[in-house]
Amino acid sequence: MNRILEVLKISTRLGLTSFGGPIAHLGYFHEEYVKRRKWLDEKSYADLVALCQFLPGPASSQVGIAIGIQRAGLIGGLTAWLGFTLPSAIALMIFAFALKSFNIQQAGWLHGLMIVAVAVVAQAVWGMATKLATGRVRGAIAILAAVITLLVPTSYVQVLIIIVSGLIGWRFFKTDSAQKIQPMYIPITRKAGIGFLISFLVLLLTPPLLRVGIHNQGLAMFDSFYRDGALVFGGGHVVLPLLQRDVVPTGWMTNAQFLAGYGATQAVPGPLFTFSSYLGYVSKPYPNGIVGGLLALIAIFLPAFLLVAGALPFWNAIRSRPGFQSALAGINASVVGILIAALYNPVWTSAIKTPYDFSLAIVVFALLMIWKLPPWIVVIISAVGGIVISALV
């Protein structure tokens, strides 16, 4: 019980302070779970990130769920998801109720939160690169992955990069096969893991068949949001066109309502998939309000939980194989490259517009790297800095 409460406390704090999107979230997780708490070592964390890059769904949320599971079992995974997700989901449902017409996209404090994401991602890239992209071959993999990701920015290309990098690692990093790895504690049996994977497929395939004979918006909403959460690679902004396709043409809401909610989503911490709670809240005719918000929220995140719980029982055995360790060396180097690309676009391009922005980014980066201030304090400082910048320019 103490571990469950510990997971809830830390994940809730991350859910209240983790601004900047999924790549920034991985930086916050690395700082909190690896460097400060030491719940898992650098390699285990990097391997988890690699696993969740393979799985469809919100990668950062899946990493958080996996860490919660290894720390406090299935309930720990659920608590980690609740703590990280509910703050932004509740905020977005409040926005849906009262603040839909406010133009928050131009708020100075919001711009400050975007700037701190630059520093957080830069810190994560630096920390992972010094451990996972050392040497000429690994460095070359990281650079090529970054260049290709920037020039061909699609989620499927990212998956292809990871696969090819794994093959390169398997071919060239044979010396890594003797590396000793620390097995992760996974309190889920393989039989249970198979059950979770079967449940994932049943919930993916059954609702579309039921919708043929049952015309119910609740069923339609669950099917749409579950499918979007189950089939999108890359998470975050990649899921937005899928969501828009499901909720606007169907008449559940107007395009103006959709865009207003997207603007509100930029103002809250936590995973972008919590946008679903706003969409469920404003949907019409029924379900809507809190019931609709919760239904959409659960439906879009449920595939992530089932996939992580299904894959983890087999992960230690897979990642301990010498050949797979070699492949992971290449995969982890490519993940560093993908992080470098994300540092530029969308993190840098959306946040750094003026010399004032760059100056604030340097300051908050130094606060994280040199003065070692806790991320939540740096977030507050950057938000205040954003307000000051908006008054100067």
UniProtKB/TrEMBL annotation:
<dbReference type="InterPro" id="IPR003370">
    <property type="entry name" value="Chromate_transpt"/>
</dbReference>
<feature type="transmembrane region" description="Helical">
    <location>
        <begin position="194"/>
        <end position="214"/>
    </location>
</feature>
<dbReference type="Pfam" id="PF02417">
    <property type="entry name" value="Chromate_transp"/>
</dbReference>
<comment type="similarity">
    <text>Belongs to the chromate ion transporter (CHR) (TC 2.A.51) family.</text>
</comment>
<dbReference type="InterPro" id="IPR014047">
    <property type="entry name" value="Chr_Tranpt_l_chain"/>
</dbReference>
<keyword id="KW-0472">Membrane</keyword>
<feature type="transmembrane region" description="Helical">
    <location>
        <begin position="141"/>
        <end position="173"/>
    </location>
</feature>
<feature type="transmembrane region" description="Helical">
    <location>
        <begin position="75"/>
        <end position="97"/>
    </location>
</feature>
<protein>
    <submittedName>
        <fullName>Chromate transporter</fullName>
    </submittedName>
</protein>
<feature type="transmembrane region" description="Helical">
    <location>
        <begin position="109"/>
        <end position="129"/>
    </location>
</feature>
<keyword id="KW-0812">Transmembrane</keyword>
<feature type="transmembrane region" description="Helical">
    <location>
        <begin position="327"/>
        <end position="347"/>
    </location>
</feature>
<keyword id="KW-1133">Transmembrane helix</keyword>
<keyword id="KW-1003">Cell membrane</keyword>
<feature type="transmembrane region" description="Helical">
    <location>
        <begin position="290"/>
        <end position="315"/>
    </location>
</feature>
<feature type="transmembrane region" description="Helical">
    <location>
        <begin position="359"/>
        <end position="392"/>
    </location>
</feature>
